[in-house]
Amino acid sequence: MPTHLEVLVVGAGIAGLATAAELHHRGMSVDIIERSSHPRATGAGLFLTGNSVRALTALGLRDHLTTSGAPVPSQRLQSHRGRVLADISTADLWRGTDECVGITRAALHAALHDIVPVPVRHGVTLQTLKESGDGVDVEFSDGETGRYDVVVGADGIRSGLREYVDPAAATRYLGQVCWRFLTDDAAGIDRWTVWLGRGTTFLAYPVGRGQVCCYADISAASPLDPTDGTADLSRFFSGFDQRVQDLLATPAARATHFSPVEEVSGGTWTSGRVVLVGDAAHASSPNMAQGVGMAMEDAQVLADTLAIEGHTPDLLEQYAQRRIPRTRWVQRQTHQRDRTRSMPPAVRDFVLRHFALRLYERATAPLRELP
Ligand SMILES: Cc1cc2nc3c(=O)[nH]c(=O)nc-3n(C[C@H](O)[C@H](O)[C@H](O)COP(=O)(O)OP(=O)(O)OC[C@H]3O[C@@H](n4cnc5c(N)ncnc54)[C@H](O)[C@@H]3O)c2cc1C
Question: Which CATH number belongs to the domain containing residue 107 in this structure?
Answer without folding.
Answer: 3.50.50.60
